[in-house]
């Protein structure tokens, strides 16, 4: 068998501990910032704390835990957590909004706003572009010799997992659009992109069921179990994303009515001008 995924051994212990430690530190920073907002009287729903903490805990498990099953099944479990489930939990917690609200007024906040509103950031957040970077990267990983090459290098494996996390987070952010971005895209484009990306992900899983990534050799039972996990696990996360988009569609008239409704003070001002 050509190893395509290396579980950390004793020599890799420092690297294995770095990922969980970083995830837990990130969760702690989020919770402290949210607590600071509440102390000054700002509203920040507790469910976002739970969502972000769960996402970080999932990343910590994927970075340092051991998955059941064969090597390919274990890798697919990590893929689903790092590239799909954890990004959804993180994005629903709105960390960029929290960062902006928690940063004191000044040059740092202005720089953050300028970065989020920049043209490059806007292009990356276009749903089809984000989908291409996410699902297209997976096709490149699993249908070329790249997957076999990462099994021979811990650094290459870390780079690939980092890309999977960032691309999955970008795609989730582009579909959900819960954060301040340069341009808001319509529900039709986001929903259609989600459907196409889901179909491409499912097709990739079916191709892996038929044949392993080039340059690798897995036990057929392990290969089939991992491909099924990728197929059905991906469907579950994509359904969750669809629920988020559908909820935005159902609540859009309510939000629009709230924006149009005059405030009591505005109503008093109009009455005084009559």
UniProtKB/TrEMBL annotation:
Membrane-spanning intervals of the chain: 15-35, 47-64, 76-100, 121-142, 154-175, 187-209, 229-250
Name of this protein: Cytochrome c oxidase assembly protein
Stored InterPro entries: Caa3_assmbl_CtaG-rel
Keyword Ligase: no
Compartment(s) of residence: Cell membrane
Membrane topology recorded in Swiss-Prot or TrEMBL: Multi-pass membrane protein
UniProt keyword list: Cell membrane, Membrane, Transmembrane, Transmembrane helix
Principal location: membrane
Domain of life: Bacteria
Keyword Thylakoid: no
């Amino acid at each position: 068998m050509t190893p395509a995924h290396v579980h950390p051994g004793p020599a890799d212990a420092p690297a294995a501990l770095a990922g969980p430690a970083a995830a837990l530190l990130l969760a702690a920073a989020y919770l402290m910032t949210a607590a600071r907002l509440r102390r000054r009287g700002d509203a920040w729903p507790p469910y976002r704390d739970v969502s972000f903490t769960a996402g970080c805990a999932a990343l910590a498990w994927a970075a340092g835990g051991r998955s059941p099953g064969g090597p390919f099944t274990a890798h697919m479990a990590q893929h689903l957590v790092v590239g799909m489930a954890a990004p959804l939990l993180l994005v629903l917690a709105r960390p960029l909004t929290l960062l902006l609200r928690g940063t004191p007024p000044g040059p740092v906040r202005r720089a953050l706003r300028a970065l989020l509103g920049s043209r490059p950031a806007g292009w990356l957040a276009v749903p089809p572009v984000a989908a291409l970077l996410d699902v297209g990267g997976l096709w490149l990983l699993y249908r070329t010799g790249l997957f076999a090459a990462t099994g021979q290098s811990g650094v290459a494996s870390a780079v690939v997992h980092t890309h999977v996390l960032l691309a999955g987070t970008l795609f989730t952010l582009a579909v959900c659009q819960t954060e301040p971005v340069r341009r808001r895209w319509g529900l039709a484009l986001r929903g259609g992109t989600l459907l196409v990306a889901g179909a491409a992900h499912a097709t990739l899983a079916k191709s892996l069921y038929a044949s392993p990534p080039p340059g690798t050799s897995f036990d057929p039972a392990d290969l089939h179990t991992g491909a099924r996990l990728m197929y059905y696990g991906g469907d579950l996360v994509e359904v969750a994303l669809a629920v988020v988009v559908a909820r935005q569609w159902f609540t859009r008239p309510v939000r629009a009515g709230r924006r149009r409704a005059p405030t009591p003070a505005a109503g008093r001002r109009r009455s005084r001008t009559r």
